[in-house]
Structures are given as C-alpha cells and as structure tokens.
Amino acid sequence: PMTKAELSPEELDLLVEYYQNAYDCPFVALSNIQNSSSESRIVLPKVEYFGRLRIGAEVIGSTYAARHVRSANILSQFVLDDDKTTDIYPGRVQFFFKHSIQLPDGETTHSLAWYKQADKKSRFNCQINDDDLKICNIELWNKNFYKLSRDCIIPVHSILGRFIAGNMKIGKKNPREYLSVIPI
Fold it and tell me: How much is the pTM?
C-alpha cells in the first residue's frame, strides 16, 4: 500500500539536486521559490511512499516495510560523470517513492528509491583449504554507509538485483569488520 507524505526539507533539497542532474536545467523547492529565476521548475515535497517493489517475480523490500527488510539489500548501477563508465554499488533501500514534476511537455512521474550506499570496496580472493579449484572472489565493503547525498536517490530502473549481506572479520591483532556482498 502507498502512503502519501511530504519529504523533509533535507530530502527535498536532495531531490531538487537529483532533478537538476537528470534534466540539466534549474529546479527549485517550493519553499525557495522567492530566490529562484523564472526558468526554474518547482519541486513539490509531496510523494507517495511504498515499502516494496515487484520486478518480474522478484520482490525488493525496504527498511520502510519491516517484513521486507531482508530483501532491501540491492546492487545499483551508477554512471560516472567523467567518462560515462558505470560502476555497481551495494546498498540498502530505505523506501520507494513516486514523485511528479511539471516539464515543458507536461507532468512526468518518476519511480525512485531512497537508498543508503555502502562505502569503500575491497576485493579478496578466498581459497578453501589448499584447493586451487575452489577459489572465489568476494567483495568486502565498509559497514558504514556514505553520508546523505544526491546519490541516495536512484531511479528504480538502476536496480540490478539483490544481494545477501554477510559479516566478515579480517585480521588477528586489530580485526576489522566488513560487509560481504554475495549477489543473488
């Protein structure tokens, strides 16, 4: 079920930044309209929240829907600005939402996810016993998430799939705990 609500001022500012990056034109939050140019498009704080998303047979959850938290771990694809290459980041969906804006062609509705992206990746090759045939690559990420930023908002079509999250400690003297990522 969807719930209608308003984004917080901080979330709305990030959504304005998201639209500016997506459309390469000026957008402004309704609360800041007095400080904007006449070309700026207004971003209203009203959204429709929902806790899960079905893509084909797969249900992707969020922390917003308590019973779907285990399926909230996703892999998302980002296009890097400098050379238009892509990279994949794991993260956890906080909630899904729909938001509409007015464009020159009319109203457009976006289906988006608010997500916390994992920070700093390390790759490890693991070997079972001394068997060279049983080697696998494991991505380990810091257990911390990036700070709140525009990258917390992603279009749902950027979701590549889910992953199983695990914990792994590395080191003996001063062990560090990592998030292990196993794609499903």
Answer: 0.83
